[in-house]
Amino acid sequence: MSANSSPAPAIRIRTAPWRLHPLAWVVLLALAIRLPLAFWPNVNHPDEILQYLEPAWRLLGHDGIITWEWRDGIRGWLLPTLFAGPVAFGDWLAPGRDGAFIVPRLLVALASLSIVVSAWFFGARVSRTHAIVAALVAAVWFELVYFAPHTLSEPLATALIVPAALLLTNGPTQKRLLIGGGLLALAFVWRFQYAPAMAVFALGACWRQWRNAIPLIGGGLAVLLLAALVDVAHGVVPYEWLVQNIKYNLLHDRASEFGTAPAIAYVHLVLMIWSGAAVLMLCALWRGWRHAPLLIVAAVVNLVFHSAIVHKEYRFIFLSMVLLIIAAALGSADWVQMLRRKRAWRPWALPIATACWVLISVGHADDSKAMQENWTRGTGMAHLARELRSDPALCGVALYTTSYHLLPGRERLAGEAPLYAFDSKDPAAKERLPALAKQHAAAFNRILSPPELANELPADFSRRDCTSLGGSDGSACIFARSGACDASAADSFKINDVLIRMNY
């Protein structure tokens, strides 16, 4: 180049708008899967309505169902208080409809993305391949997807514990210890039964440097103080709910009234849901041990702890499932790297591995009876609730041997109309339910009842719509009569009075 020649213009290479970071694509995929499920009205367990959304609804000044847990003070107010804002916003967006149910589910689904992002960074500690595989698996695995929109303490606590585990492992800084301690404390308030698993990460962070405990405990104490202030604001003694919960469920074994199972039940259920994939999962976990041993240890500790409690529900071990899935994904990424050492497999190793995870997940999403029931539980009652709410002639609803735990919430079922219950377990019934229903029929003009009990209902009620409630819960139908209601005719059978007599 001559001295007089001008330099060539600099060439700027701009990244096309669609060239997003791989993590961004995975997060968008996770969103695309999770957000629509927030509108699907299935209910994994009555707690997501009766223990969290109903109390939040009552905090806004509305009438709601009060279960024995709230009467006996074994629930903390922090989570319902946090839900009150989304519930109010949802009701403002769609008053008298499902907004108060959907908006909280949307926010919980968004919170579940912390698991996907954390899985990426767990993998990034090893390689970009491990990051992609771990995040993609966390985004698409059917159990993580299924629980994502449910307003339960287990998935919400897990969405805090997984990023806390990320912060507290691999040489945490003071700042990470502070934040990690706060996340674990908040998870403890939401789901204190996960404390043994959380202790694994806390001990792992402090095992070699006990001074790490200072910022860890400091962050935790700040959150615990905030939760205590919320209790005080609601007029209760801070953490009295925790003492009462342990007293009733662990010491007095109240939870066993709702079902018991042997210690091996969780292992059997996991093997049934994962079926043939369980063998591949164990092999992947063997490889994943060297990348994330604390994840596997915490998962096993949580599984063993909950196996020792006679009342078992699959949601209780959700944390274990998440930690094991991430560890297995990290292990499977080792296989990808092994395949890449062969030139012919190099371009196909990652697509094949991720496609296998996706296919296995899709194949198992409704392959077992348990998962099929999970996807449909609550949808039948939601259908009947929509029909009742849209009924302009409705002035009172009675539940006739239809369990309260199936309800989608008092407001979603009956609106502002009174809600009554006639149940054979009610001491006031004493084997005279048909007579009681006829005696107090002036108080309501709609009845929810199993179709096979139609002959026990007052003669002027005729059957309308019916639907399956899913699983062993049978079916329910709306029975209707014309005319107005006299609310004073059945005051003693309002649902909360019945629940008090039944101690439910």
Instruction: Report the helical percentage.
Output: 55-70%
Q: Whole-number radius of gyration?
A: 26 Å
Mean pLDDT: 90
The parts where pLDDT drops under 50 for at least 5 residues are 1-15
Summarize the main sheet.
5 strands, mixed
Say how many strands there are.
5
Give the number of helices.
Answer: 23
Q: What's the topology here?
A:
Elements: H1 22-37, H2 47-59, H3 68-71, H4 78-93, H5 99-111, H6 113-124, H7 128-140, H8 142-147, H9 153-168, H10 174-190, H11 195-206, H12 213-233, H13 240-251, H14 265-274, H15 277-288, H16 293-307, H17 318-340, H18 349-364, H19 369-376, H20 379-389, E1 397-400, H21 410-414, E2 419-422, H22 433-439, E3 446-449, E4 462-468, E5 475-480, H23 495-502
Parallel strand pairs: 1-2, 1-3
Antiparallel strand pairs: 3-5, 4-5
Helix pairs in contact: 1-6, 1-7, 2-4, 4-5, 6-7, 6-9, 7-17, 7-18, 9-10, 9-11, 9-17, 10-11, 10-12, 11-16, 15-17, 16-17
Report on the structure:
- The protein has helices spanning about 20-35, 45-60, 70, 80-95, 100-110, 115-125, 130-140, 140-145, 155-170, 175-190, 195-205, 215-235, 240-250, 265-275, 275-290, 295-305, 320-340, 350-365, 370-375, 380-390, 410-415, 435-440, 495-500, and strands at about 395-400, 420, 445-450, 460-470, 475-480.
- The chain is mainly α and about 500 residues long.
- A 5-stranded mixed sheet has the order 2-1-3-5-4, sandwiched between helices.
- The longest helix is centred in the middle third of the chain and has 23 residues, at about 320-340.
- The protein is globular.
